[in-house]
Design brief:
single chain, 393 residues, alpha/beta, N-terminal domain of TfIIb, Rossmann fold, 3 domains, seven-stranded mixed sheet, five-stranded parallel sheet
């Protein structure tokens, strides 16, 4: 692939050792904005995805990403908090962080707090105070509590004077293009403080090994492996305290502190750029076949008269349908989030319906966009007395 962007430096380490690994033209530039009509959804702006791989540090990112196209606002509906499985994970994670880092009576700052649920959990369970930043924060989604402040804005250098005992940044770093600059800014804001930072991001090694093209979309301009994430933080003055996988192997959870002296040894979970290179090569050579197989399967379902629904209207669902170019083969997308009911999928315009609609529609097949929710979905289908084949991506 001969892209002029390949001459640019890596935003993680600055090296110019970049290789093209995947491209998709015409991706919706947002996946979680509420689209009020099919027309608005189909005509929503699109951008290109051109993934580059840095052979120096292992970082993967969208070379064509344009932050000016992004529209983070109160129309974003990204929360996973309507899932019991997710809530159990969030509560367990909050409890673990509180115990591991003594977060009792402390002040916590969260960058990219979404609707504020996780920050509220940390404060409620540990008796902490907190301040959260997110342009998509919506007032009134849960009862306000003393000691909690939310600012509907991006966290930036103008807020660097705020002090905190613990900094949280969940599912946000992958939305930031200039990752090195961002992490350097956080390290600078800490100064001589010993505050711990906690980051949660998707694990790109799972994406490339599973050929999970539905996990590649425009908002996610940055993709991390355990090794590339660790190298990013060490390069900008952090020492890695802990790094692990969770949520069915989908997330990387990193804890780090400002570096003092020599860095600690590499962790077993960290791979080298050369090791990641092998997986990236496999992905580049095989992902087109995976896309073709899914496209063929859905078209065969349609020809056979199967009623098929997608379960999960978030970014995975949008990327799945958009990449495959699926239109009439599927009519509906199901989601448990009541705020998404009656809206439409960006790019393809599929209508989003609540789970109870499935009892009326009686699908033959359900394509589940996230296998961790299989138990929940099967319980829903059982409750609705719907016997459908459940396929996980």
């Amino acid at each position: 692939m001969a892209w002029p962007e390949l001459s640019l430096g890596c935003p993680g380490c600055g090296l110019q050792k970049i290789r093209a690994i995947y491209s998709f033209e015409g991706a919706p530039v947002h996946s979680v904005l509420l689209m009020p009509s099919r027309e608005a959804a189909v005509n929503y702006p699109r951008g290109d995805v051109k993934l580059g791989f840095c052979e120096g540090c292992g970082f993967i990112w969208n070379l064509s990403y344009d932050p000016a196209l992004q529209e983070y606002s109160k129309s974003c509906e990204e929360t996973q908090a309507f899932s019991g499985y997710y809530n159990a994970f969030a509560r367990s994670l909050a409890s673990s962080l509180i115990e591991r880092h003594g977060l009792k009576g402390k002040h916590i700052l969260e960058i990219g707090c979404g609707k504020g649920e996780f920050l509220a959990l940390l404060c409620e369970m540990g008796g902490n105070t907190g301040i959260g930043f997110d342009p998509a924060f919506s007032e009134g989604r849960f009862e306000r509590r003393d000691g909690l402040t939310f600012i509907s804005d991006f966290y930036s250098e103008k807020y660097s004077g705020l002090r905190a005992d613990f900094i949280v940044c969940k599912m946000t770093l992958e939305h930031i293009d200039m990752t090195g600059r961002f992490i350097a800014g956080i390290r600078k804001s800490l100064g001589d403080q010993s505050a711990t930072v906690f980051f949660q991001v998707p694990d790109v090694t799972r994406v490339i090994r599973e050929l999970a093209f539905w996990d590649i979309y425009y908002e996610h301009c940055s993709y991390f492996s355990p090794g590339s994430l660790s190298r990013l933080f060490r390069a900008h003055g952090f020492d890695i305290v802990d790094l692990r996988r969770d949520y069915g192997g989908q997330y990387l959870l990193l804890e780090a502190k400002p570096m003092q002296g020599a860095p600690s040894p590499f962790l077993d979970i960290e791979e080298t750029p050369a090791e990641l290179d092998e997986a990236v090569t496999f992905f580049s050579e095989s992902v087109v076949q995976k896309i073709s197989l899914w496209r063929h399967k859905l078209r065969e379902f349609s020809k056979s008269g199967y009623r098929t629904v997608v379960w999960g209207s978030g970014s995975k669902g949008v990327a799945f349908l958009s990449t495959l170019g699926i239109t009439d083969e599927i009519r509906y997308v199901v989601d448990i989030n009541p705020f998404r009911k009656g809206t439409f999928m960006a790019g393809t315009g599929h209508e989003i319906v609540a789970p109870d609609f499935v009892a009326e529609y009686r699908p033959d097949a359900v394509i589940l966009m996230n296998p961790v929710y299989k138990g929940e979905v099967e319980e829903n289908l059982k409750r609705l007395r719907v016997q459908a084949q459940v396929l996980t991506v």
